[in-house]
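Example 4.3 (complexes with small molecules)
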Amino acid sequence: MKISVIGTGYVGLVTGTCLAETGNEVLCIDIDESKVKLMQQGKVPIYEPHLDVLFERNIKANRLRFSTNLEDGLNHGDIIFLALPTPDGGDGSADLSYVLETSKQIGKLIKSYKVIVDKSTVPVGTAERVKEVITAETNIEHDVVSNPEFLREGFAVDDFLKPERIVIGSSSERATNLMKKLYKPFVRSGNPIIVMDEKSAELTKYAANAFLATKITFMNEIANFCELVGADVDKVRAGVGSDSRIGKRFLFPGIGYGGSCFPKDVKALHKSGKDLGFNFNLLDAVIKVNELQRKILIPRIDNFFNQQLKDKTIAVWGLSFKPETDDIREAPALYMIDELLSKGVKLRVFDPEAMDNVKLKYGNKLYYATNMYDAVNNVDALIISTEWSIFRTPNFSKLKENMNQTVIFDGRNLYDIDDMINEGFYYSSIGRNIVQ
Ligand code: UDX
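Answer. The structure with uridine-5'-diphosphate-xylopyranose bound is encoded below.
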């Protein structure tokens, strides 16, 4: 099939590349000329495991091409994916200006039947609005379909190629059949393609993300309570997660959820309720708890140093919002960095992939370490904010040699309490007893 993807952010790029992998001819459109040039040279503009291999292979086979010309995109594809940004509009709601402006252009340029697919996470009713905007410009037949993505950064290629489910919101049989044909190779394992109306599909995406964010937040509160009563959250998690109704995944406590999806989507769902006079009381609490959780280590660090943080030197391991990505959007590390900088702390930071993005944001306010051990040179404490594998088994002797004070604040519970007792560190983690 011929496919066009408008927007080559992480969703658009993964979608386009993976659809080319099953033999489709894909044309990706982006307004950013320098990015398009880069991609035409075969370079992937983001870090996403396995994407580079597929990218190269499909460009070579001429199944994956890039352009800045929206008209070419519209002429090329039978199916046109919209993978455009829907940022926070400032009041928590999703800003639809990119989606609606592009829809208007589509209305002006469309020459034959097309299926327009909303891939971005958009509020309930957006497919209807997109349809209205296009129809206001043209009489040419078209269908608008909602097809939310459930890709995890770091696993996006795998999630796309082997999805647990495909959700298609469509009220047109013609469009539904085309979408089913497109996705057939990805669900050979028997995983379902679930067809529903557009609004239910749009809400499915928000409900899934809000549920997962709630699950994490619930565990974070249980962890905080564990500390108060002297229980160990790792043990509670194992006990709770063994109930198949609850499940083991997404129960890991930490310093709050981050990233480009959960914080934005939970707020957008909450706001769209509010706009209709409906109060999502549960999400209200989730948002509040997460805001507190991402800074939960700060008062502990402050107390440890008797409120004398000025001119202390602290290392931060992990800057991306989670491992296997260079994405720093809504990363808990950044909230802590801001807070610590405001208290006059000198910071030495290290991340395996996100250093360039952090440099762009903080310039010379931070020391950018060449490796994880360089980061801890002469520091008074180490904060762990992302659970990259490389941080899981450090050389503790080397840490002790390098650090001024052997103090670790671990926001991701990477180490066993017993090991830290044996190694002789002061060790404060989430939902477990402090080792001192
Ligand atoms: C998420 C959804 O999983 C995906 O389906 C959706 O399409 C986009 O949003 P992503 O943002 O890539 O994907 O990250 P995810 O792996 O889901 O983690 C989100 C946040 O939750 C991270 O900050 C992570 O550190 C945190 N998290 C996750 C926890 O704190 N504990 C957990 O047990 C799991």
